[in-house]
Every structure is written in C-alpha cells, then in structure tokens.
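Worked Example 4.2. Consider the chain below.
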Amino acid sequence: SGIIMKNAKTWLLILCISIFVSLFLGRYGLSINETFSALCFQGDRIANSLLYNIRLPRILLVCLCGGALSIAGMVFQTIFKNSLASPDIIGTTSGCSLGAILGILFLNDVLMIELSSFIGGLLSLFLVYFLTRRSKGNEIVNLLISGIIVQAIFTSLIMAFKIVADPYQQLPSIEYWLMGGFADASWSNLLICFVLILISVFILYRLRWSIQIIGFGQEANTLGVDVKKIRNQALIFSILLVSSVVSVAGPVSWVGLLVPHMIRLWTNQPISKNYVLTLLVGAVFVLWCDNIARCLFTIELPISIVTSFFGALYLAIIFRRGKKVI
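Applying the procedure from the previous section yields the following structure tokens:
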C-alpha cells in the first residue's frame, strides 16, 4: 500500500508537470513570459484567448477523459476477469458512435450531437441487459455475447447511415469523428463531462472493494456481497464514463484496455489498490497522446491513431518478452 501511494503521488506530480508543459505546446507557440502573463490575465488578447478558450479547457478535458476511460477499463477487466477486456466489450462505444452520427445527420448542433451520443450509449446498455435477461446459462458469458450482438447491430447501422450521408459535408465529419479527437473541446463540454465523470468515479471508488470481491468469482456470494447488484451498478457507471467521453471526443481507442492492463502488470495489485494510480496514469497517457496528435504534423491527427499505435506497440513489446498478457 505504501509503494502504491508513493507511485500515485509521483504520477500526480507528473500529471501536474505535464499539464503545465502542455500549455506551451501547439502550432501557435507561446513563450514562458507570454504564458505566465496570460495566466495572470495580463497578456495580449490573442494569448489570453488561446490559453483560456482553447488550450486550458482542452488539456483539462483530455485529462478527465483519459482517467475516466482507464477507470472504466479497469472495472470491466475486473468484473469479466479478463485483463484484455475493454469498454467496447458490451457495445457502448458503438452505441455512442451511432447516436453521434444521427446527431450529425439530422440535428447539426454540437450539444444535440453530444446528447444523442450519450443516449446511444445508454440504449446499448438497455439492449444488452434485455438480451442477457432473456438468455439462460452463465450470466457473464451471456453479457459478453449480448455485447457482441449489440456491437454488430450498431456497427452495421453506422455503415448504413454513412452510405446515405452527404459525401461532401456530412460523411467527412462522420469519418473524422469516428477517429476521435478533442479539437472541439470547450468549457461547456468540460463542465458537462466533469459532473458526470466526477459522480461516476466517486461511486465506483466507493464500490471498489465489492468489485474486487466479484473478481474472485463464486466466493463473492459467501462473503456477503450481492454480486448481481454490485455488478449492475459498476457496469452502469462505467458505461456512463465511456458515454461521457465518446459524446465529446468520439471513440478513443485502446485507453480502457491498455492503461489498467499496464498498471496491473506493474504493481500486481487489485482494483482497490490501483484505483487512484490508474486514474492518474490514464490522464497522463491520453494528455501526451493528444499533445503528439496536435503537434506532430501541421494538421491535427485523430487521437485514436496515436493511442492505437502506442497500445499496439506496448502489447507487442511485452508479448515479445514472453510476459503474461491474459
């Protein structure tokens, strides 16, 4: 516990330094003096606007979303007892994506697109649970199969709507959104996400011991834990985390799989010990992926390109070294 706490403090310091450094990064460079002047509201109009209207809300939103996806992934991996499980496992990302595409096609309003994306994520949850309740046998296996079914249905609908989209305006927007990115970050997006994510992260933190016990299997029933109730609560709030992120940034690949898996390999500790550390590492990882996405080339890369590259590279390295992945 002492080592985990020390690691968490170290990563908190790394996160603070990363946020500070990120303020200087971008295609429009700011010097140290310009940045400090802008932070004190004494810079010129362009510097103040760049810092407070573009970079600062984006940096904070990226950190918030990175931590949220990492926590959701950790919960999924614990409940499903599979270290390669991810939020995509029950079709949440596909549901959110379908909702956002419908918003792009028929609503054409940023807030309404976010709302429709969130509704799509909740719809995927309801469909999965409807199929699970109507099935017999192992509940976890039924949940996984239901997720695969719902994901396939939503993915096919996404492709169908892409065909009918305007190829000159709507289709490029849809394709770019499906690759994920934080270019549209704003204080309003940050506020909405902050409230939803804060509530979900806090409740999952309170449930972390029960979630850990569920990961032990059938022993949870003998320890006085209402497995079905805790599992349902954990999944609902994990999906709320994912839906909140996807509604403002699109699908951000690999974060929910890579970060909690990486933390488990580092510490060999359960969710109750790794909760805060996973939150911080996820925030740092996505922040630097976003920095690379917006600074590497003259055009901004979709963030999923960067996260997928580092995720695949990391798993390839540990696989090459013969370490246990699953």
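The mean pLDDT is 84. Residues 66 and 285 are 7 Å apart (CA to CA). Compare this with Example 4.1 before moving on.
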